[in-house]
Amino acid sequence: MFDELEPPRRYPRVPMDRRVAAFAVDFGLVSLFSLFGGSHLYIWFFMLLWLGLRVVVVEKNRGQSLGQWAFDIRVAELRYGSTPTLQAMLKREAIAGLGALLVFVGLVNLSPTNGFILIGLVPLLVDCGFAFLDEVGRQALHDRVAHTMLVQTRRGYSLDIKLKKLFAQRR
Description:
The chain is mainly alpha-helical. The chain contains seven helices and two strands; from the N terminus they run αααβαααβα. The protein has a two-stranded antiparallel ribbon. The chain starts with 15 loop residues before the first helix and ends with a helix.
């Protein structure tokens, strides 16, 4: 299914909380705007917006989606550290996007008698569970398949650092 490539150690790894926050920002934006698609088109809107934000924007913005830019993260190709090719990004985001889509559909159809949200979480948890279990590379399943990795960068908004400073000032 995927080749076992060892990620280079020269790139700083991204903490899991920042990865989750960046994914949540992208997921939230795509979910919000896809709800404008109407009752039957929201799934198509979600898929198009997800690919637009997580593939096209990343391609044009040197490896950063909006959520990744907000938290100083970028997607890098595993061997050379450059921005991944369009084909690699499509592979990566098809897997991550499917998990996100199932969670989104579960949230949209959530009711007291519908437990679909619990089943919809499983693919995303399995995909991202690889990153939690991988001590060295912190690669999720979609990163392994596409031969990519997430690395820290100084180019971004540093939202997590700004929020920490704000909370420290409030104390």
